[in-house]
Specification:
Strands 3, 8, 9, 10, 11, 12, 13, 14 and 17 form a nine-stranded mixed β-sheet that branches. α1 crosses α8 and α2 runs antiparallel to α5. 28% of the residues lie in helices and 27% in strands. The chain is built from twelve helices and 22 strands. The radius of gyration is 25 Å and the shape is elongated. The longest helix has 22 residues. Bound molecules: adenosine-5'-triphosphate (ATP) and magnesium ion (MG) (3 copies). Adenosine-5'-triphosphate binds next to β9, β14, β17 and α8. This is proline--tRNA ligase. It is an enzyme of class 6 (ligase). Its EC number is 6.1.1.15.
Length: 434
C-alpha cells in the first residue's frame, strides 16, 4: 500500500488505536465518564492537565465537521464570523458588575501590574467593541457576530473529559438590535438556527426553559442531551409537556399546570444556551446606536452559546456502549473504513490494488465521502484484529477485502455497524447502498 498518495491511511495517523491502548497518563480515579475513557483509549484526545485536552487528528476531523455544520447554519441567519481576544482587561468585567462573582475566573496581571482575565464568555467584549465604533446609525442593525474560540473557566470540578473542561471550545454569538421587538425576533431566529444545528448533528436533544444565572436577562433556553452522567437535571411534565431546568422550576410541582404526580426528572448534559439579555451589558458598556432622531440609544442584546468540544464528547457519551465508541454520522472522523488483507496472505496476492481502487471510487463517486474514507493499511495485523479496532472506533461502514474479492466479479464484505448488517456486495452494489 502506498503511503504518500495523499490518502487517509491509518498507519500514518498520529496515535491511532494501536498506539493508544491504555488511558495513558491518567490514574483510574480521573476517568469519570464512558466518553472520556473511550476517547482517550482510542486516540481521539489526550489530557494535558486536568480540564485541558489535546485534540488528536481523529478528534480534529470530528471537530472540523461540527464547525462546518455550525458555520453553514450561522450563515443562513446572517451571522458574521469574528474572533475576539481571549485575554481581557478586567475593568470590562468590573464595569458590568460580574467581577465580584469571580470564582471561575482565571485572573492574571501583566508586567505593569495591570489586571487581566482569560475570558470565560464574551458579552462584555462584544459590547465594548460596539461602543468603540461610536454611535453608528440604526440602519446598520440588527447585527449578529459569532466566533468559535477557546474559553477559560476555573471549574470547581473539571471532569468527564471534554464535557467539563477548564479550557474548552465554544461557539458564541452576540446579537444587537435597536428595539425589543426586533431583538425578540432575532432571539427566535437564533433559537431556530440552534434547532437546525442540533437536528443536523443528529443526536436527540431537548430544548428547555433555562436559568439566566449570573448572565442576566429575563428569558433563556437550554439545549440538553439526556445522559446518566449529566450534571444538570431536567423537569419534564407529562401532563402539559413543560420542560425546564429544575433550577428554574423547583421540582415538587409543575410551574405551568400545577401537576404533581406526572413529573419526571432526568439527568442531562447542557450543550447549548441562549439568553435574551436586554440592556444588561449594552447599557453599562455603552453599546449605543444613533436613532432615527439622531439620538444615541442603548442596543438590545442576545447571547447564544454552544459548547463545541462538549458537544462532541456528549454525542459519544449518549451513543456509545461501554466498549465501543459510536458517533452520529455527521461527526464521525471517517464514515467508512476499508480493510485490505494481511501482508503475505493468499488473499493479498489475489486482490492486488483492489483496496485502492475501491478507495478512489468511494471518494470520487459518492457525494460527502471526500476525505471521509479511511484505509486501514496496518497490514501486519490480521483482518480480524483490524475489524475489531474499526468497530470499537465506531466507523459506520467497514469494508473487508477477503477471499471473495478475488472472485471474477469481486465481492466485498460490507458491514453496516449501525444496522448490524453484513452483506457481500460488488463495487457497484456497494456504491449504491451507501
Ligand atoms: P454548566 O451548567 O454545564 O456549567 P454553563 O451554564 O455554565 O454550563 P454557559 O455559560 O451557558 O455554560 O456556556 C454556554 C455553553 O458552553 C454551555 O451550554 C456548554 O455547552 C458549554 N460549556 C460551559 N461550560 C463548559 C465547560 N466547563 N466545558 C465544556 N463546555 C462548557
Ligand atoms: Mg458553568
Ligand atoms: Mg448551566
Ligand atoms: Mg448555561
Amino acid at each position: 500500500m502506498s503511503v504518500n498518495s495523499g490518502r487517509h491511511c491509518l498507519s500514518k495517523i498520529f496515535q491511532p488505536v494501536t498506539i493508544v491502548s491504555k488511558t495513558a497518563n491518567l490514574g483510574r480515579q480521573d476517568v469519570t465518564s464512558k466518553s472520556q475513557r473511550l476517547m482517550l483509549e482510542l486516540g481521539i484526545i489526550q489530557q494535558a492537565v486536568p480540564g485541558c485536552f489535546h485534540f488528536l487528528p481523529l478528534g480534529m476531523k470530528s471537530l472540523e465537521k461540527l464547525i462546518r455544520i455550525v458555520d453553514s447554519e450561522m450563515l443562513k441567519i446572517e451571522g458574521q464570523k469574528v474572533m475576539f481576544p481571549g485575554l481581557i482587561d478586567s475593568k470590562l468585567w468590573k464595569t458590568s458588575g460580574r467581577l465580584e462573582d469571580s470564582s471561575e475566573l482565571f485572573q492574571l496581571k501583566d508586567r505593569h501590574n495591570h489586571d487581566y482575565l482569560l475570558s470565560p464568555t464574551h458579552e462584555e467584549v462584544a459590547s465594548e467593541l460596539i461602543s468603540r465604533l461610536g454611535h453608528i446609525s440604526y440602519k446598520h442593525y440588527p447585527l449578529r457576530l459569532y466566533q468559535i474560540t477557546v474559553k477559560y473557566r476555573d471549574e470547581l470540578k473539571p471532569r468527564f473529559g471534554l464535557m467539563r473542561g477548564r479550557e474548552f471550545l465554544m461557539k458564541d454569538m452576540y446579537s444587537f438590535d435597536t428595539d425589543v421587538h426586533s431583538a425578540r425576533k432575532t432571539y427566535e431566529e437564533v433559537c431556530q438556527c440552534y434547532d437546525s444545528i442540533f437536528k443536523k448533528i443528529g443526536v436527540g436533544f431537548l430544548k428547555v426553559l433555562g436559568t439566566s444565572g449570573t448572565m442576566g436577562g429575563n428569558l433563556s433556553h437550554e439545549y440538553h442531551y439526556l445522559a446518566h452522567v449529566g450534571e444538570d437535571r431536567i423537569l419534564l411534565c407529562q401532563n402539559c409537556n413543560y420542560l425546564a431546568n429544575v433550577q428554574l422550576s423547583g421540582s415538587c410541582k409543575c410551574p405551568k399546570c400545577g401537576e404533581q404526580t406526572k413529573l419526571d426528572i432526568k439527568n442531562s448534559i447542557e450543550v447549548g444556551h441562549t439568553f435574551f439579555l436586554g440592556v444588561k451589558y449594552s447599557k453599562s458598556l455603552k453599546a449605543h446606536f444613533l436613532s432615527k432622531n439622531a439620538k444615541p440609544e442603548v442596543l438590545q442584546m442576545g447571547s447564544y452559546g454552544m459548547g463545541l468540544s462538549r458537544l462532541i464528547a456528549a454525542s459519544v457519551e449518549v451513543l456509545s456502549t461501554e466498549q465501543e465508541m459510536r458517533w452520529p454520522d455527521s461527526l464521525a472522523p471517517y464514515n467508512i473504513v476499508i480493510l485490505p488483507p494481511k501482508a503475505g496472505s493468499k488473499e493479498e496476492a489475489k486482490t492486488k490494488n483492489i483496496a485502492e481502487k475501491l478507495y478512489v471510487a468511494l471518494e470520487g463517486q459518492i457525494e460527502g465521502l471526500k476525505d471521509n474514507v479511511l484505509l486501514d493499511d496496518r497490514l501486519s495485523l490480521t483482518l480480524g484484529r483490524r475489524f475489531l479496532d474499526a468497530k470499537r472506533v465506531g466507523y459506520r461502514y467497514i469494508v473487508v477485502i477477503n477471499k471473495r474479492a478475488a472472485d471474477v466479479v469481486p465481492l466485498f464484505e460490507f458491514n453496516d455497524i449501525k444496522t448490524n448488517t453484513r452483506l457481500y456486495l460488488s463495487e457497484n452494489e456497494l456504491l449504491t447502498y451507501i
